[in-house]
Design a protein that fits this description.
This protein has 117 residues and is α/β, with parallel strands linked by helices. Helices cover 32% and strands 20% of the residues. The two termini are 22 Å apart.
Length: 117
């Protein structure tokens, strides 16, 4: 699984950039190996469609986006492409991914026991 996280800097220990459309970078992490690549958001200074352009660039590069805030157009593009979008995320890129994974694993364990569907 590849998780994409908006970031203020170009590494996994960077703080999350809360603005999807205006983020400096997106760090794309393979959660199996913890190897990552960085995508610079060249459209962050655009007056129009910055979020939509970034969403188009990312929609086939991972399964999940973690960020704090995202506009409706970018959200629609990603969701229609089958990308899970998690909003309200804070902390560093690494912390966000660890929290996402632990919550998913916790939910899956509960589902297996028939407690949560």
């Amino acid at each position: 699984m590849r998780i994409m996280v908006t970031s203020e800097e170009s590494d996994i220990e960077s703080p999350i950039d809360p603005r999807f459309a205006r983020c400096k970078y997106v760090v794309i992490v393979d959660v199996e190996s913890w190897e990552y690549e960085v995508v610079e958001n060249f459209d962050r200074g655009s007056i129009f469609y910055a979020g939509s352009r970034l969403a188009e660039r990312l929609k086939k590069r991972g399964e999940v986006v973690l960020t704090f805030n995202m506009g409706p157009s970018a959200l629609k593009i990603l969701r229609e492409a089958g990308v899970e979008v998690v909003l309200g995320v804070r902390g560093t890129v690494k912390e966000a991914i660890e929290n996402y994974i632990s919550q998913k694993l916790g939910k899956r364990s509960l589902e297996e026991k028939g407690i949560v569907k």
